[in-house]
Amino acid sequence: MTKENEKTSELDVMRAMAKFLSDLWFEDEIRDQPEQLSEIFDAILVTEVGDYQHLRIKMINCIKTSKMLVKALEPFSDIEIKTACTTIINA
Q1: DSSP structural state of residue 47
Q2: From CA 86, how far away is CA 25, in angstroms rounded?
């Protein structure tokens, strides 16, 4: 993150976001992550640690965020996502 009032172009932001998305999407099977997180969190919830409300809220937010990402990119193939990210990164 840059300091407040430091000049940053929109293109720099878009390149950074495209790189992040590309790295994230192809690092792991992100499409499976919401179900994997749910499985992990379900196991945690039956423990004493899982009874902690603040932790439950964080877990729910993680699942929601991963579902949003998967849903936003669902209409596109891996090749389309990679091509778009590469195009933006190289712009």
Answers
A1: S
A2: 13
